[in-house]
Amino acid sequence: MDAYTSFAQVYDLFMDNVPYDEWCAYICETLKKHGIADGPVLDLGCGTGELTRRLAACGYDMTGVDVSVDMLQKAMEKQTDPPILYLLQEMQTLELDGCVRAVCCTCDCVNYVLEPQELSDAFRRVAACLESGGVFIFDMNTAYKYEQLLGDHTFAESRQEGSFIWENYYDEETRINEYDLTLFIPEAGELYRRYAETHYQRNYKVEQIVDFLQQAGLVCEGMYDDYTDAGVKADSERITFVTRKE
């Protein structure tokens, strides 16, 4: 099955530990440092729209883009005033009517782009959608996370509203991490329906990412340990990139 189909039904439930408020505060502070306190902003890989809605509440004119119909459906069920525009697109073929002042892409969405050329294309499309001097903030999982924390490990969680089993397989040669996800979602009465889907991510080298950014005309202004001002460490699990269109 395609990723984020059945998982979309319980995504917010099992991802309730994602620090959206902290991410939103970091992004807003970073944008304001670049003179971007309002105007059009794109949330690329917006998922169920949790971060998108928070940025809209901070005064930005938000557009959300995602590749999953099911995730976008969940996002559109969360009413906002004014309503947020959500678009079904792939990152590597991104196209907007007009330019935006900033783009954010969180929760390791770039790792889901498996082919290096397609990620290079995605950065070019982001640059094409940005105003001159516009800011692109994104994150990615690190080699440390794939090799040491995920690796060949299995994670599981059971709640009244549903359960999941998440099995990881990381191939150091191909740098591909496979996630086999099994979900048990309640239906009528005491019955649960079983769903299964597989996710893949690529572990990109930082040097490769910086090269793709340069080719796209994006200047890498800084790399940080997660959404903080701290520098990247050997055991950083997530790197946040702050870049600017030349």
From TrEMBL:
Residues in coiled coil: none
Cited Pfam families: Methyltransf_25
Keyword Signal attributed: no
Top-level taxon: Bacteria
Residue span(s) of domain Methyltransferase: 41-134
PANTHER family referenced in this protein's UniProt entry, alphabetically: TRANS-ACONITATE 2-METHYLTRANSFERASE-RELATED (PTHR43861)
A molecular-function term among this protein's GO annotations: methyltransferase activity
Classification via InterPro entries: Methyltransf_25, SAM-dependent_MTases_sf
Transport keyword on record: no
Key words, A-Z: Methyltransferase, Transferase
GO biological process: methylation
Name of the featured protein: Type 12 methyltransferase
